[in-house]
Write a structure and sequence with these properties.
Mean pLDDT: 84
Distance between the termini: 18 Å
Largest sheet: 7 strands, antiparallel
Length: 832
């Protein structure tokens, strides 16, 4: 009874409660029980030892393990116990001890792994695995079940020391995975086979440059783990698939969902090692694609969870990330330094170099320095740091830091040596890096193609092929924007600006500098924004441009004869005092009556068109990930204010509008042939001379999109002209949102009648512990109060709350409680 109750509590992450049940069961054992029910008695003690570890009681755990080893009757029982000690060693960062103990246990099972394998042995094992897997990928999930208990114990042991060998000895890790796949193919699958298949997929990618096959094998591992439905196995499999395979052969953002589940399953099962790795892998993935604020926020959230998992390896890497973010924001001693606020790089490096996992951390450190030096314009220093990283590369093949380091190294080389034809060594280095990026791009177009194109542009530029470079810069910018790669888009715009400056095309250079500033603003790189804004100001200076008067006011630019008719349609933007806001506001006051909303939007749209100088326009609101056209106007029709979802519209450039919605960036077209928008189907068909598509932001939140075009004149939608139309658009969109809330409230009045739960609404049920946390949330308790009530760590509470939100598909406590009431989940917690 106590064993069953303890297992149920452990499954719901209530490790302290489980420990109480197991301890009580152990107290009740007698000598007769050991004689008649040895297996039950042994398992009670083993579960107690594991829960002692999970609750942080290290000494009690060690005593329990020693006791069990003294009474274990065979290798299977000894392995069962020693796996707890291995897990404890790895969580404490004692990787070498964990590996040594695991290899010792394997020898007792007649599995001999050399501690110092040679290259020939590794090559033979690799060839053998390739031959065994050839033509059998689709059959792996259907293999028979492994039944021999000793071989199952071997599989469990092999995977127990996977983390320690992966970060300290890749050769042993490779041999272990080879042996595990051989066992599965010969004797059948066991739950841990799922994680083995994902690991072999990772090996195929890293060691054999076959990430495409590795991704397929990893997917099989994921499917098999879902078939077994064991939380600890899912945690391991999802971490490897989402954290490595999706980064190199799939889609980096695809891995987010797997890593989120890996963390949740790791915490639920007590597999704190892989729960920590899942957090680390997610942050590594965000590092190459997310704004700094999102990266910082995610790290802060995970730091709280690390208070429970206590993984110092991941924690130290998070500390390093935080210094990297501060450096990019200009908040450290120098742009290429991590020093400041009590952090000393030298002290950090001295401490890290003594860690068994130092190679991985030092590669990451060298990558950050390469990147920072390049962005700070210290290109030779960036090349030096990339060279420093090479010695640790063997322990970075699973990290997105490896492509990132080579990317910035190549950028630094091409920037430092404007004529690569004279620099044989550097030329070979860039060619080698390009070769690797072509492989990565072939495996994952979204993750690496825009980086490859930018490097090819830089290589063409450094070899004097400026026309090709110009073409490739634009292609890299388009590709990066299409894939949401703010980092490559920003750098590509800056490099294109430099190119046009060299060609003395200042107008084009200013355009690309402006785009670069916008990109770096999305990335939130303060160190670059200030630098580029100063360059733009210098370019626009009268002494440099000849286009401004001595008092800083812009000169009037003559209108070409062919534009005269279009210009006559454009009223000069009036000063703020000249706008009749009183009439508009008077109309807005009637919004309390839903029947007047059309008149309000018509008035707003009229004024937007008038002051912007547009011949066509649309105001769109965002609603539940869809775009709704709230108002549409053009020179041929009256203003239409009947809301309609944007879908396959021939009246508007849907692709451009959705791009702005997805990225939050302005898109402006001024009729120039050099713009990437000339390839847009709508632009090519309708030939507008000026286009502006911009997000409508209210209090920092994007609520909608304003689209404007002018058929006849170029350069219409200037910053000065657009100030008033954007203000009006914000009012209009905000009123649409408020009106929508009012309609929802009217359609869903408060009622005392019970609402039946939505059938099938929850894809995954809440665990018993999550139901307990949910009930306390509904009672109004804070995270700390819930932790005190349930006798668990605050970080664990945060993980439960995050899981509850994910399962209920909400993002706030109030919404979670409302959804729980609707699904009658709170009723379950009150049942005896």
């Amino acid at each position: 009874m106590n064993l069953n109750a303890g297992n149920r509590a452990k499954a719901s992450s209530a490790h302290d409660v489980a420990l109480a049940y197991f301890s009580k069961g152990v107290e009740l054992l007698t000598t007769e029980d050991w004689n008649q029910m040895f297996d039950l008695s042994f398992e009670l003690h083993a579960q107690k030892a594991e829960c002692q570890y999970l609750c942080g009681n290290s000494e009690e755990c060690s005593r329990e393990i020693d006791f069990l080893l003294g009474i274990a009757r065979n290798p299977v029982e000894r392995s069962r116990v020693q796996m707890i000690r291995i897990m404890k060693y790895i969580n404490q960062g004692r990787y070498l001890e964990g590996t040594a103990l695991g290899l010792e246990r394997l020898r007792e099972h007649r599995i001999i792994i050399s501690p110092h394998p040679g290259k020939f042995m590794l090559m033979i094992e690799g060839m053998r695995i390739e031959m065994l897997l050839r033509g059998r990928y689709d059959k792996l999930a259907q293999l028979k079940e492994m039944s021999d208990q000793e071989r199952i114990a071997v599989m469990n042991l092999i995977f127990a020391i996977t983390p320690s060998t992966f970060f300290t000895d890749k050769k042993i890790f490779f041999l272990l995975m080879c042996r595990a796949i051989q066992l599965s193919l010969k004797y059948g699958n066991t739950p841990v086979s799922a994680a083995v298949y994902s690991s072999i997929g990772m090996v195929l990618g890293q060691a054999m440059n076959k990430f495409d096959k590795g991704y397929v094998l990893g997917k099989i591992g994921v499917e098999l783990s879902e078939k077994y439905d064991i939380a600890s196995i899912k945690s391991k499999t999802y971490t490897i698939f989402g954290g490595v395979l999706c980064q190199f052969a799939g889609n980096a953002s695809e891995g987010d969902a797997y890593l989120d589940k890996a963390l949740r399953f790791g915490m639920e099962s007590g597999d704190y090692v892989f729960a920590s790795y899942a957090m680390g892998a997610h942050v590594n993935s965000l590092y190459i694609r997310a704004p700094l604020s999102e990266l910082a926020r995610t790290i802060a959230d995970y730091m709280a969870v690390l208070d429970t998992t206590n993984d110092e390896f991941v924690r130290q890497n998070f500390y390093l990330y935080q210094r990297y973010i501060l450096a990019l924001q200009g908040k450290t001693a120098a742009p290429d330094s991590f020093n400041g606020n009590g952090f000393e790089e030298e002290e950090f490096l001295n401490r890290i170099s003594r860690e068994e996992t130092s190679a991985t951390t030092l590669f990451q450190y060298s990558t950050y320095k390469t990147q920072l030096c390049y962005l700070a314009g210290r290109h030779h220093e960036a090349i030096r740091w990339a060279k420093e990283a090479e010695s640790y590369e063997a322990y970075a093949t699973h990290l997105p830091h490896l492509p990132e380091c080579l990317f910035y190294e190549s950028l630094a080389i091409t920037a430092s040596y404007p004529d690569l034809r004279q620099e044989t060594g550097m030329r070979k280095k860039v060619i080698g890096n390009l070769r690797r990026f072509r492989k990565w791009a072939a495996w994952s177009l979204k993750n690496y193609h825009s980086r490859l194109i930018l490097l090819e542009a830089e290589y063409a530029y450094a070899n004097g092929d400026w026309d090709k470079a110009e073409e490739m810069y634009d292609k890299a910018i388009r590709e990066a924007r299409e894939h949401g790669d703010i980092q490559v888009a920003s750098i590509a715009c800056e490099r294109a600006a430099n190119h046009f400056l060299k060609r003395d095309q200042r107008k084009s250079a200013l355009h690309y500098l402006h785009s670069a500033v916008e990109g770096y603003s999305h990335w939130e790189l303060n160190m670059k924004i200030a630098e580029l804004e100063e360059r733009m100001e210098n370019l626009q200076n009268p002494a440099n441009t000849g286009r401004a008067t001595e008092n800083g006011q812009a000169e009037t630019v003559p209108i070409a004869p062919e534009q005269a008719h279009g210009a006559a349609l454009l009223p000069s933007p009036p000063p703020s005092s000249g706008v009749d806001f009183a009439a508009i506001l008077k109309k807005m006051q009637s919004a309390a009556n839903p029947m007047d909303m059309d008149a309000v939007l018509t008035e707003i749209m009229n004024n937007i068109m008038k002051y912007a100088g547009a011949s066509k326009g649309a105001l769109l609101a965002t609603s539940h990930d869809t775009l709704v056209v709230q108002a549409y106007a053009d020179s041929k029709t009256q203003i239409i204010t009947s809301p309609s979802e944007l879908s396959n519209s021939a009246l508007l450039p849907e692709g451009i509008i959705r791009y702005v919605y997805r990225t939050g960036e302005d898109v402006q077209y001024t009729g120039g042939e050099e713009s990437w928008l000339i390839h847009n189907p709508y632009i090519a068909l309708n030939h507008p001379q000026s286009v502006l598509c911009t997000p409508v932001i209210v209090h920092g939140i994007m609520l909608g999109i304003l689209y404007l075009e002018n058929k006849l004149a170029q350069g219409v939608f200037t910053k000065a002209r657009m100030e008033l139309p954007l203000t009006l658009a914000s009012h209009g969109i905000l009123m649409c949102v408020l009106q929508s809330f009012a309609e929802q409230a009217a359609a869903d009045p408060d009622t005392d009648e019970e609402t039946a739960p939505v059938p099938g609404h929850m894809e995954e049920p809440l665990t018993d512990r999550e139901l307990e946390v949910l009930a306390l949330l509904a009672a109004g308790l804070s995270n700390k109060e819930i932790a005190d009530q349930l006798i668990i760590a605050v970080g664990t509470v945060k993980v439960h709350v995050k899981n509850i939100f994910a399962k209920l598909k909400v993002n706030r406590r109030t919404k979670a409680i409302a959804q729980a009431k609707e699904l009658k989940l709170l009723d379950q917690t009150s049942k005896p």
